[in-house]
Amino acid sequence: MRGRKRAVCALLAALMLAAAPMPPARAALPGSMMQLAEVLGAVHHLRTLCGTNEGPLWRNKMIEMMGVADPSETERQQLIQRFNDAYHRYRNSYQTCTSTAAGQADKLMQDGQRLADELASGGYGR
Q1: How far is CA 15 from CA 4, 12, 96, in A?
Q2: Backbone angles phi, psi at 99, to 5 degrees
Q3: Does residue 94 belong to any structural domain of this protein?
Q4: Position 17 in a domain
Q5: pLDDT confidence of residue 3
Q6: What total of structural domains would you count in the chain?
Q7: Where does the UniProt annotation place the signal sequence (predicted)?
Q8: 44 and 82 in contact (C-beta within 8 Å)?
Q9: Is 39 exposed, middle or buried (0-12, 13-18, 19+ CB in 10 A)?
């Protein structure tokens, strides 16, 4: 009898757990955050190339963004990959600071500001 009572209790507990609502799935990071990672990677190269002496500022901004976003491990890897891909793409395209490179850096910084503003208005901190 005791064994049967335990089995019924275990079954009831399992049914209660199965019926409990699942917590909502965490929403995926917005695409604009992936774009911002690319902008940060490109700006990191171009601003260094053009002698702004900002050191790791843009890399640190990337780290700060990931801290605020709290991405899953997969999303974290995707953000890092986007940053690194953009960095290397711009490094291959611009080996010296030209007016074109400086102009591209300025344009990217404007794009980055726009993306950061969109993310902030969507609930992500800065």
Answers
A1: 16, 5, 66
A2: -65, -30
A3: yes
A4: no
A5: 53
A6: 1
A7: 1-27
A8: no
A9: buried
Q: Which domain range does residue 94 map to?
A: 29-121
pTM score, whole prediction: 0.77
Residue 77 counted as domain residue: yes
* 3-class SS letters over the chain: CHHHHHHHHHHHHHHHHHHCCCCCCCCCCCHHHHHHHHHHHHHHHHHHHCCCCCCCHHHHHHHHHHHHHCCCHHHHHHHHHHHHHHHHHHHHHCCCCCHHHHHHHHHHHHHHHHHHHHHHHCCCCC
Sign of CA dihedral 89, 63, 30, 79: positive
Q: Is the dihedral of CA 95, 116, 125, 76 positive or negative?
A: negative
Does 19 have pLDDT greater than 80?
no
What was the pLDDT predicted at 15? 41
Residue 72 phi/psi, 5° resolution?
-65, 170
* Residues 43/112, Cβ–Cβ less than 8 Å: yes
